[in-house]
Amino acid sequence: DRIFGKRDAYNQLALTDSFSIHGYAHIALSGLWGGGIDQQEVRRTQEESHTSRKVVASSSSTVLSMLNQRSRLLQFAWYDEMKTRDQGCYKCTKDGCGLDFDHAYKNNCYNINNNFKKLTIEEAREQSYWSEYAVEGSRWYSHLKGAYEKSWTKVVRTGFGTFHSNTGTFGRHPWANQDPMFYVHHASVFLVRDLALANLVKNGHAYPPLYGLDEYLTSRGVPECPGNNPTDTTVFKNLVRYKVGQEPG
Question: Which of 27, 9, 140 lies closest to 83 in space, CA to CA?
């Protein structure tokens, strides 16, 4: 219902690509284990401002119990996997994962060289994983901004610290396509996308081949990364679907 309620292809595709439809299986089917995930205690401090008075409350619980909360699960097992693994922030054994300090200092994981102080987005853009194509307003910019802010929050604010569990082959890894569920799951995601696009056509909101994506990006005024815009050239063929008998162009 949520995806069929979207009246444009861009927001449909953004929802399809999100944790709710595409991402959850990478956690649920891959699994999390090791490092005492069901025993390790998390102590976190919450601060609430009431006019000029600040109330500080401290509480503790296990990692596993906190993962029952959707926002905590996203921080722990989704956003914190986006760039920290790529940067080599962790080293893992069969018992779990911990911070690899050699790489952590080299790549300033979680702003460790800044005493874990939260950086502004302008400062964060100087980190190695940001790219020149991360133009504010684009999906890539939102992806990198979310990865930075929420992985930092996972370590500093929620009490998880640098603790991390192991994940299976269907996790956020370059080798996830070796998992037997990879193609089955993504086929189902593409089916949801196709049904959603067909619904746009049925209700007269958009039409193939681009379903209004070109108009959306033009009106937004901010391009996506090269190769992801309707006017870009690509080495691939037959990515744009046409109706039977429709002239290409």
Answer: 140
Q: Are 164 and 35 in contact (CB under 8 A)?
A: yes
- Matching residue, tokens 């604010």: 157
Please identify which residue in the block is written with the tokens 């069901």.
38
Compute the distance between CA of residue 9 and CA of residue 67 in angstroms, rounded to an integer.
32
How many other C-beta atoms lie within 10 A of the C-beta of residue 137?
11
| CA atoms of 164 and 171, how far apart (whole Å) | 13
List pLDDT tens digits, range 126-165. Answer: 776 788 888 899 988 888 888 888 888 888 887 777 777 7
Distance, CA of 193 to CA of 207 (rounded, Å): 14
Q: Report pLDDT digits (tens) over 86-141.
A: 788 888 877 778 889 988 898 888 888 888 888 888 888 877 678 888 889 998 88
Query: Is-cis flag, bond preceding 248, omega within 30?
Result: no
Spatial CB neighbours of 232, under 8 Å, sequence gap ≥ 6: 226
The pTM assigned to this predicted structure is 0.74
Structure tokens at 101: 């300090």
Distance CA 157, CA 145 (A): 17
In whole angstroms, what is the distance from residue 96 CA to residue 158 CA? Answer: 19
